[in-house]
Design goal:
This protein is of the alpha+beta class and 193 residues long. The protein contains 4 helices and 7 strands, in the order E-E-H-E-H-H-E-E-E-E-H. It has one domain: BB2672 (60s Ribosomal Protein L30, Chain: A, 2-Layer Sandwich), CATH 3.30.1330.110. Strands 1, 2, 3, 4, 5, 6 and 7 form a 7-stranded mixed sheet that branches.
């Protein structure tokens, strides 16, 4: 990946077949997280005003993580989310630079589109970090059945001078979702009308 030095990539897959002893007719809920652990070019430098080198490099990362997430999901995603971690020699704004709209637009394109803004979370962290990446329906943020998250554990990262960039997708909404609101079919009808 140009612009950022990748130390490793990591993927995590979760498949849920029932919740509270029940399963609906939508099949298993599959969630996939794909992560890139990269060198933070701003680590240890104090305040840096121009973070554009990371913003620009994040486009390629968004494309690659999105392509791998779809491959591992095995179907077209219905939900997406993004997140990231920054090691302790950096600041939260460094990882935020890696998951801006440049990353998000590339991720959207790689997974086959999406009309809704992409839910996001970032934080400063030590190694062996865990982060809950939020998910929402990719075409309309108000589809409650798809409000979810994936807990992602990144072994041996981030080191103090690293960033972890994360893309998460899922194949459907929560199993047995029943809190009302806009359905995915209603949301799709809005998009196509």
């Amino acid at each position: 990946m140009s612009g950022l030095v990748v130390r490793k990539t990591f993927a995590q897959i979760e498949e849920i077949r029932s919740v509270a002893g029940e399963s609906d007719d939508g099949g298993p809920l599959r969630k996939v997280a794909v992560c890139a652990v990269v060198k933070n070019p701003f680590a240890g430098r104090g305040y840096v005003a121009d973070l554009s080198p990371v913003v620009e490099a994040s486009e390629e990362i968004g494309t690659r993580l999105g392509q791998e997430a779809v491959r591992l999901l095995g179907s077209a995603p219905e939900s997406y989310g993004k997140g990231g971690l920054v090691g302790t020699d950096g600041e939260q704004e460094h990882i935020n630079a890696a998951v801006t709209s440049a990353f998000g637009n590339a991720l959207r394109k790689a997974i086959g589109g999406g009309e809704a803004w992409i839910t996001s979370v970032t934080k400063v962290s030590g190694t062996d970090a865990t982060i809950d990446v939020p998910l929402a329906f990719k075409d309309e943020i108000w589809v409650r059945s798809h409000y979810d998250a994936m807990t992602v554990h990144i072994p041996d990262a981030p080191h103090p001078d690293e960033l972890v960039v994360i893309a998460v997708v899922s194949n459907r909404g929560r199993i047995n979702a029943r809190v009302g609101g806009l359905t995915k079919d209603e949301a799709r009808a809005r998009v196509t009308s």
